[in-house]
Every structure is written in C-alpha cells, then in structure tokens.
Amino acid sequence: MDFSSKLLENAVYEMSQLPGIGKRTALRLVLHLLKQPKEQTERLSNALLNLRSEIKFCENCHNISDVAVCEICANPKRDRSLVCVVEDIRDVMAIENTSQYKGLYHVLGGKISPMEGIGPQDLTIGSLVDKARKGEVKEFIFALSSTMEGDTTNFYIYKQLKGLDINTSTIARGIAVGDELEYADEVTLGRSILNRIPFEGSLKAN
Ligand SMILES: [Zn+2]
Hints:
Keywords: DNA damage, DNA recombination, DNA repair, Metal-binding, Zinc, Zinc-finger. One of its GO terms (molecular function) is zinc ion binding. By secondary structure, this protein is an alpha/beta fold. It contains nine helices and seven strands, in the order αααββαβαβαβαβαβα. The protein has two domains: 6-54, Orthogonal Bundle (Helicase, Ruva Protein, domain 3); 70-171, Dna Topoisomerase Vi A Subunit, Chain: A, domain 2, CATH 3.40.1360. Helix content is 45%, strand content 13%. The longest helix is centred in the N-terminal third of the chain and has 17 residues, at 38-54. It starts with 5 loop residues before the first helix and ends with a helix.
C-alpha cells in the first residue's frame, strides 16, 4: 500500500496489528475515524489507555477485574468449595450467562501449548495448586475446550492435584462442535455443568 501520508500509514499499521484486521480493513477503520468528530477518536484512545493502565486481575481467581478481588469472588453467596477452571474471561462470561453455576472460577490465562511455546509456568496453575492445598476447595471442574491443548492442560492439572483430597470433574463433552465455550448456547452449557462427570471417568472413556 502506498500512502500519501506517513501519519495515515502509521495509524493503519497499528490498527492492522489487531487479530482479524488486514491492511484494507485497517485503512477503512482509520478513514472512518477521520470522518467522525475528533472527540470519538479521543474517547476510543482514552478507553484503551485507561484499560491498560487501570485493569487489574482478581488476586483470587485471576479474572479481569476493576478491583483487587472480583465481584464473583467477593460474593458471600457463592459456593467457595466449587471452582470451575477456565481459559479466560470469555468462558467466565459464558458460564455466568447460564445462571446455573454458583461456585467460583480459576482463570488460567490460556492453555498449555508446546506449539505456541506456552508451558504450565506461563499459566496460573501454580496458584491453582496453592489454592487446592489450602483445603477450602472440594471440587475443581475442568471447563476448557476439548482440543488437544485443553486435554493436555486438564491432565497436567489433574496430575498436580493427585494425592490431595480433591475431586476433579469435567463438563460434558460435545457441548458444541467447534467447541469454544463462548459459542455454546446457554441451556446446553448450563446443563453440561450440572451433568459434569468425574475427570477420571472421562479419561477411561477416551
Ligand atoms: Zn475473582
């Protein structure tokens, strides 16, 4: 792409660094912003800057939060003996939408993926094991997507928890083909949490 303006080129370049945004889309978005009042670009820029500078991660579950302990963890009505292990905030949002789950979460921040160079130490697995050792948690529910990375991560955590007096379960498989939790419909996802199966049983079935 030949740009008549270095300023335009820079803006398009930065926009095109976002996932799913090619150079042409980036150009369209930037030109759109230029046509709008200047305040709109300021609001967008400020929202992103504030997000980066003020965002926190809950010290208990590692979910994105505006405060040190997120609303879910701070809620005395939630069952603290039940912890659902998920990849990121999108899964928390999907499960919360079902209104079927009253436990807490543990957000891993990703899945173990040797291909992408993501190892257990890059995730919040250490903190999960510490949590397990404290004795308050009775059951961890694995709710990662049923990909090879998801399976590897579940199994790794399962092994770390061996020897502790803690149940592990997994949500019913086949909740939706294509299988990212965020795409499963609420009724199916809610049911699969209620009808979860012991993790060890799921290993034998595979
Ligand atoms: Zn939390």
